[in-house]
Amino acid sequence: MSELRFDGRVVIVSGAGGGLGKAYSLFFASRGAKVVVNDLGSGLKGDGASASAADLVVDEIKKTGGQAVADYHNVLEGEKIVETAMKAFGRVDIVINNAGILRDRAFKSMSDKDWDDVLNVHLHGSYKITKAAWPIMRKQKFGRIIMTSSAAGIYGNFGQSNYAAAKQALVGFSNSLAYEGHKYNITSNAIAPLAASRMTATVMPQEILDSLKPELIAPLVGYLTHETTKQSGGLYEIGAGTITAHRWQGTEGVVFKADASFTPAAVKERFGDITNFD
Description:
The protein has 278 residues and is of the alpha/beta class. The protein has helices at residues 19-30, 52-63, 78-89, 112-140, 151-155, 161-181, 206-209, 218-225, 264-274, and strands spanning 10-13, 34-38, 67-71, 94-97, 143-148, 186-194, 235-239, 242-245. Helix 4 runs parallel beside helix 6. Keywords: Fatty acid metabolism, Lipid metabolism, NADP, Oxidoreductase, Peroxisome.
């Protein structure tokens, strides 16, 4: 098979200082793309900042003959990240919304700050970068967007109500952009990756992490963002070389009479039929 390349394309990767973001950056650069390596350099919980994480990835790309620039802005300053891309390369073709933090707490112990900080990075940060890139993509009649969801967003997870809420919100966000971007050749897809990272290292044993290389997520992201791919509005769970496509499914349903007979007791009587997926 011929290699899918990205010569001339400009890619923004948020949270690109390590893990998945670094893997994406190296992948795109190796296939001819110019990469904006965005990373605030904060800790797993979003604390602190350091330029070194992004700089190291840029240096690695340049050593192999690739083109990349570092960006150190918070994702909530998405317009500045896009500005970095425009100043350096003059366009934005692909946005990989990858940055994230964790504030795991049981809901009874979760503070407003735990909730707000996680939604700010995952959801609002993805919005800010995408919002700034959107008019550029519309004007050039080309754009590819990836939202990073999670199994926690699809299924829920104990102690991650904030994270799960943000991750499922990104699916709805992506689906809506798929509709709005269609006539401008802009696609948007969501992925739910399972890969070794600072975040998964807090909840998984090492023997599992060893099989979940971040590099094994990049092929799907590469396919979904290639100029020949028109697929949009999808949700894909991926990890350890396995990809699963997701869809919403409803039962056949039950029709009740729209009169006084439609009561909670009537619903109880037919609830087995309502929930029967056979």
